[in-house]
Amino acid sequence: MNSVLMNRISVGRLAGIINKRLVVTRSVSTSSKKHDTAVVTDVCEKQQSVVQEQSKVNKNWISYGFHTKDKTEDRFWTHITFFTTITLCMTMGFLFFAYMPDHTFREWAQREAFLEIARREKNGLPLLDPNLIDLSKVQLPSDEELGDTEIII
């Protein structure tokens, strides 16, 4: 079993080596063409300038998407964008909502209720007046209108 496993591993390695060599090899014509040679200098100079520009940029640099050619511009706009969104928008937005005025008057109603309770206790009045609404203004249904309806008090 061990020899079968070793044979499979060696065959796999050999296949990998053969595949790499097939990919690397190129067909090149070796016939001598003495009269068909030409020298191109403009293309070489342009390629050298492109290579020099690309060598200035760090090979391992990956753009954040703000600038694809210049690393410093890309970092600058990245920092400005994140500072603006995180610090200004989110922090200032949370502060705005935290200190925003109470448009529903919920806090005002609670403060007013505490003041009214304190006033009634000071004057010796009950906390809730049983005659808050005048009884002559209240219209209750008659016994005939209620019928068999159960009344729970």
UniProtKB/TrEMBL annotation:
Pfam families: ESSS
Protein's membrane topology: Single-pass membrane protein
Residue spans crossing the bilayer: 76-99
Primary localization class, coarse: mitochondrion
Subcellular location: Mitochondrion inner membrane
Keyword field contains Transport: yes
Domain of life the protein comes from: Eukaryota
Subunit structure: Complex I is composed of 45 different subunits. Interacts with BCAP31.
Name of the protein: NADH dehydrogenase [ubiquinone] 1 beta subcomplex subunit 11, mitochondrial
Organism: Henosepilachna vigintioctopunctata
